[in-house]
Design a protein that fits this description.
The complex is a heterodimer of chains A (250) and B (265). With 250 residues, chain A is an alpha/beta fold. Chain A is built from 7 helices and 10 strands. Classes of the chains: A alpha/beta (250), B mainly alpha (265). At the A-B interface, α2 of A face α8, α9 and α12 of B.
Chain lengths: 250, 265
């Protein structure tokens, strides 16, 4: 397997606050990583640094051996938290999907692009909402539109920031199933920030535990040791008592 | 009456309102969707400071007002990036400062009242061909931005982070948008007036938003509303013998109120 993403000694600070401290890891092609950690542990910051939205204070991030500025942004698909959507913006679902292809907000699009966008919506069982207004969509539908937007560009790596927030269990299960199937068929790597530990364990191949620094990164079966859980949820001031029970799902 | 409505100075007023209506309503969609209406209001008051300085220096006020307003707009944008203060606080501070400076500048000048009054409340019927030329240039620049910047501004208006992640030069684009919004405000001040120009930026776009399903539709409808309500208002103001800029804003507000009421039901 090839190295897809290399992070070397990444440190990100916001003023005096350290969001990520000296984090290094290598992510290979075709793996599904669930990123877990308490609130404010630097999970979203990590995704933003990979996207180039945040300038690292120290360290470097490379994708296919190149710096973020050098790669084609189409290599990365990004599904933001749906709560960030500005519902007052007048837009149709298909326009959002097309922005993934054009890397812009175009008012006219080629037939080829439109067919490609409709095809991906069909794959995600969302063709019926293609021409619906974004403000009319439910959380689950929006989540799929954002996913379609990121997949339409055939990315090599897919970053998802808590996609399940505000979405009910049925939609979430359905979403994860689609994601797994797509990733397997297209050999893409997934990095998903999530709070849902059970779902993370069930769907991912690897787990990344962080608490402003790297606690664990590796195969999911070795992830949830007492030591790792304690290190993920402890901070300098005092230790929290954490009990974690893992239930196997069907 | 027909003779009056086709008089040369009224014809110039029609042309001016088409040019201002086009540019202001085009930029208005970004002002509305980016929630910048208070910035529009602030910059209009900052423009007054520039106009007053121009009057004090005995030059064409607009030539001083343009750099003055752009400077205030850049200062607001700069401090917004550098400090944790919200933009409305910064706008509140700098627009009051610029306006206060304007009052001081005018107090230093003798016999200033008539000129200043025209800029505060607008005087579309006193514009000349030089004003039309400047407004025409502004409309051409506005039209040209459509091909390069509309899509980029629209994308970062929808979601700033997605646009940055796709490597659009969002920061530079935002500065260009701020400069052009400042320009259209300054150039419209003589016609619409400091007090009412920010409404011309907001109302056509707000009306258009109620009828649009896409951002492109919103842009087109806003331009149509901006130009048509402006033209109708000039005719109404001549017939009713009322100040044009006030009639424009009252007429647009009535259209807005009817639209929002109809849309609710």
């Amino acid at each position: 397997m090839k190295n897809l993403l290399e992070i070397n000694h990444l440190t990100v600070k916001y003023g005096n606050n350290t969001a990520i401290w000296d984090l290094s890891l290598i992510i290979q092609e075709g793996i599904y990583v669930a990123i877990l950690g308490p609130n404010g542990s630097g999970k979203s910051t990590l995704l933003k640094a990979i996207l180039g939205l945040i300038q690292p204070t120290n360290g470097e991030i490379k994708i296919f051996g190149k710096s973020i500025k050098e790669i084609d942004p189409k290599l990365i698909g990004y599904v933001p938290q749906i709560k960030t959507l500005d519902k007052s913006f007048p837009a149709l679902a298909i326009e959002l999907v097309l922005s993934g292809l054009s890397k812009n907000w175009v008012f006219r699009t080629s037939k080829k692009d439109k067919i490609q966008a409709l095809k991906i919506l069909e794959q995600l069982n969302s063709i019926d909402i293609a021409y619906r207004h974004l403000s009319e969509l439910s959380g689950g539908q929006l989540q799929k539109i954002y996913l379609a937007r990121s997949l339409v560009r055939n990315p090599k790596i897919l970053l998802l920031d808590e996609p399940a927030t505000g979405v009910d269990f049925v939609c979430e299960t359905n979403f994860n199933a689609i994601l797994n199937e797509y990733a397997e068929q297209n050999k893409i790597s997934i990095l998903m920030v999530t709070h849902d530990w059970t779902s993370a364990y069930h769907h991912s191949t690897h787990i990344l535990l962080m608490n402003n620094h790297l606690v664990y990164f590796g195969p999911k079966d070795n992830a949830f040791t007492d030591e790792n859980i304690k290190n993920t949820f402890s901070h300098l001031a005092h230790k929290h008592k954490v009990t974690f029970t893992l239930k196997e799902q069907d | 009456m027909i003779e009056l409505l086709t008089h040369k100075f009224i014809i110039l007023a029609y042309i001016a309102i088409i040019l201002v209506g086009f540019s202001a309503s085009y930029f208005g969609v970004f002002v509305v969707q980016r929630r910048l209406s208070f910035l529009g209001n602030g910059l209009a008051h900052a423009a007054f400071g520039g106009v007053a300085l121009g009057i004090l220096l005995d030059t064409q006020p607009i030539y001083i007002a343009i750099p003055f307003t752009i400077l205030i707009s850049m200062i607001i944008t700069y401090f917004k990036e550098k400090s944790t203060l919200s933009s409305d606080t910064l706008i509140g501070v700098f627009f009051s400062l610029a306006f206060a400076l304007g009052i001081v500048f005018l107090s230093l000048k003798e016999n200033y009242t008539t000129d200043a009054f025209a800029y505060l409340f607008g005087s579309i019927l006193s514009i000349n061909t030089e004003d039309i030329t400047i407004l025409g240039l502004m409309a051409i620049v506005t039209f040209l931005t459509f091909f390069k910047y509309w899509a980029r501004w629209a994308y970062s208006t929808f979601d700033n982070e997605l646009a940055i992640a796709d490597r659009l030069p969002v920061r530079r684009d935002n500065y260009i948008l701020s400069i052009l919004i400042s320009l259209i405000i300054v150039l419209s001040v003589k016609i619409i007036g400091v007090v009412l120009i920010s409404s011309y930026l907001v109302l056509p776009a707000a009306i258009a938003r109620l009828y649009s399903r896409t951002f492109f539709q919103m842009t087109i409808i806003s331009i149509i509303v901006g130009i048509s309500t402006g033209l109708i208002s000039i005719i109404l103001s001549v017939i009713l013998d009322l100040p044009t800029s006030a009639v424009i804003i009252i007429f647009q507000s009535i259209v807005f109120l009817i639209s929002i009421t109809l849309k609710k039901n």
